[in-house]
Design a protein that fits this description.
Length: 271
């Protein structure tokens, strides 16, 4: 595990991405199913990021480690920017015929229900689990150029930026959970639920967008999506080792050292 001194700093950036109105509808190399998958992920981010901020912020007075307190503030800053930019991106998706609004509304309703029914520590453990999933996706995006090769540049830039920041703050919710609970049972109970619900809802949201777009019965769209997930670049095989690693009692997100991928992104982004 990397010591704090070796981990990358969590920077609050305020980028602006101009996704042209006339950019291709199926921006992911013309792949209809994969484009729907990316928009399905984007649809949940604004409300999801608000839930993450709230779950971590709840414990601000319990954390005495000043470095972690600073990381919590930076985490909130980054997640707020993610929410802001993905709201604009979702508006772009809507303008191109993707029905993202019902997905965002359902996530908002589901988060309100979780806040009402789950104790704060369970919401924090859920946040840590979801942050691990997003960190694994970020690792795949930054670690393999072929994932976004040939994708419309404005779209690719937004997804790489989001992946980079998910990498920077991937341990914050986990570290807060370790400070306030440290229970392996609490951590794994939420991870088991998230491991089922996250892919299930992502699939349902993707199919919803494809149905609304008129591509649900397009066999080529489904084959392209399956190829993306399992063959080339094979997102699911890429993230499988990291998914299993979370089950280790001694797991920590920075056991997976992503600094090289992050530095490559920083170089190309001109940082």
């Amino acid at each position: 595990m990397l010591t704090r001194a070796l981990r990358p700093s969590i920077r609050i950036r305020r980028p602006h991405f101009d996704v042209p109105a006339d950019s291709p509808k199926y921006f992911f190399r013309g792949e209809k199913g994969v484009t729907a998958l990316f928009y399905a992920l984007s649809a949940v981010f604004p409300e999801g990021e608000r839930m993450f901020i709230d779950a971590v912020h709840h414990y601000r007075d319990r954390i005495t480690d000043e470095t972690l307190r600073q990381e919590m503030r930076a985490f909130a800053g980054q997640e707020a920017q993610h929410g802001r930019l993905h709201e604009a991106y979702n508006a772009h998706a809507t303008a191109h015929g993707f029905d993202v609004a019902p997905i965002s509304a359902a996530v908002k309703e589901r988060n309100a229900l979780l806040k009402k029914r789950l104790p704060p520590v369970a919401r924090l453990a859920t946040t840590a689990a979801l942050e691990h999933f997003t960190a694994l996706l970020a690792e795949a995006v930054l670690g393999a150029d072929e994932v976004l090769a040939g994708v419309d540049p404005a779209h690719a830039a937004l997804w790489r930026w989001h992946a980079a920041e998910e990498t920077e703050h991937k341990a914050v919710a986990f570290d807060v959970l370790a400070q306030v609970s440290g229970s392996y049972l609490v951590r794994m109970r939420s991870y088991a639920v998230v491991s089922v619900m996250f892919p299930s809802f992502t699939l349902l949201h993707t199919l919803h967008l494809m149905r609304h777009d008129g591509t649900l019965l397009d066999a080529r769209a489904h084959l392209g999506l399956l190829r993306f997930l399992f063959v080339e670049p094979g997102m699911l095989p890429k993230i499988a080792p990291g998914w299993r690693a979370y089950f280790r009692p001694d797991f920590h997100p920075w056991m997976r050292d992503d600094r090289e991928q992050l530095q490559r992104w920083q170089a190309t982004a001109g940082e």
